């Protein structure tokens, strides 16, 4: 088939073949990969090419299409920058992503990465605490 950067809507990159295919699964898996990079946040924030390379490298290491990976959040954590990628695919599980070695991630990026953590949708979207009850106001 034709080589594309992103899979067409409704298809996802199959990691073993890297071809866009429709999933037989009736659901998509969503998980997040959190990276801690050894780069100042101000430098990261200004460098759009670096931001794009992190998305591209994440998709490559996971074996999915660029359309399956999105930048979710970037945070300043002192001397480091924490970047969270959202992964939506029927073919790669959170367990598959967690099995990827830090050495493989380190080799994929142009800036040093010190920590890689794979987290669930629930970890990134915690349930909001219940609102306190409104006090009764006497009439």
Describe this structure in words.
The protein is of the alpha+beta class and 139 residues long. 27% of the residues lie in helices and 30% in strands. The chain has helices at residues 41-46, 48-62, 94-98, 102-108, 121-124, and strands at 12-14, 19-21, 29-37, 69-77, 80-89, 113-120. The strands form 2 sheets. Strands 4-5-3-6 form a 4-stranded antiparallel beta sheet. Strands 1-2 form a two-stranded antiparallel sheet. The longest helix is centred in the middle third of the chain and has 15 residues, at 48-62. The protein is globular.
From the structure above, extract its key features.
single chain, 139 residues, alpha+beta, 4-stranded antiparallel β-sheet, two-stranded antiparallel ribbon, 30% strand, globular
Strand and helix map with partners:
Blueprint: E1 12-14, E2 19-21, E3 29-37, H1 41-46, H2 48-62, E4 69-77, E5 80-89, H3 94-98, H4 102-108, E6 113-120, H5 121-124
Antiparallel strand pairs: 1-2, 3-5, 3-6, 4-5
What's this model, at a glance?
This protein is of the alpha+beta class.
